[in-house]
Prior knowledge:
This protein is of the alpha/beta class. The chain is built from 14 helices and eleven strands. Strands 3, 4, 5, 6, 7, 8, 9, 10 and 11 form a nine-stranded parallel beta sheet that branches. A two-stranded antiparallel sheet has the order 1-2.
Amino acid sequence: MKIGDIEFGPRPVFLAPMEDVTDIGFRLLCKRFGASMVYTEFVSAEALVRSVKSTISKLTISDEERPVGIQIYGRDVASMVEAAKIVEQARPDLIDINFGCPVKKVAGKGAGAGMLQNIPLLLDITREVVKAVKVPVTVKTRLGWNSDNLVITDLAEQLQDCGIQALTIHGRTRAQMYTGQADWTLIGEVKRNPRIHIPIIGNGDITTPEEAERAFQDYGVDAVMVGRATFGRPWIFKEMRDLLDGNAEARPLTVSEKIDVLEEQLRINVDRIDEYRGILHTRRHLAATPVFKGIPDFRQTRIAMLRASKMDELMAILEDTRRMLCQAAGQPLE
């Protein structure tokens, strides 16, 4: 599978762009475990044009994480074109346009999935961004605004005509937000359309290696994008690659190795930002990781873990948890 000149090989698995999640440290971990491509947190076109420091910092990428895409969102042609030119100077492998974010502060202002209520403007933005930059431009969007406006089959052709080089489809409407079950039938319909020749990337409810394999087999997508299932679990890419590549003899990570990864993520965030904010940035992953799911009488430990404000304190809790889990699983401390 290729996007522009980027060759991914068979059945690639991408890390979805997610605000406050896909910082450079997390992207590098996901890349290490087999993510075929990673994306930055999405960035506001208006903030880029205004040179907002916190937004500009999101454009920092490293060669170790390539191929990497930078995703932008906005609600007018001029700012999106200017933002795309700014982003191009950061040397991403591609620029992705977000027409899928459903949250109120984005979609409610007409950007992200809000663009699904103004298809002519959505297409104008796409066409002009494609013309403004030399790197490949891709789009991520949803099935439509709501169940009465499932526009994706026609929209996919229109976006392709604008010159995009790949399309990611999340199998929900904006009205669904992240509730209910993702509907992959329309994603498969877009992929089977003989007039579609760009890669189609499927997204939504891919939480296990088996679901990733099913997406390729049942819907024929060119790639799969994984989002929330990566929280506290960057090794999910190894699990998916082992199944997709038929690597039956691959050894899964031990509990101790998984805690090593979480501790490394904590150190990366503290070194990258500072102790207090680095811990805050890691809490989302500690709260969501499956490593601590189902542990009896773990509630108080979990509360202490999520309240810790000092790195030494949090590391001590993680080490105590490591010893408890390894003992319960009969695994050695490593």
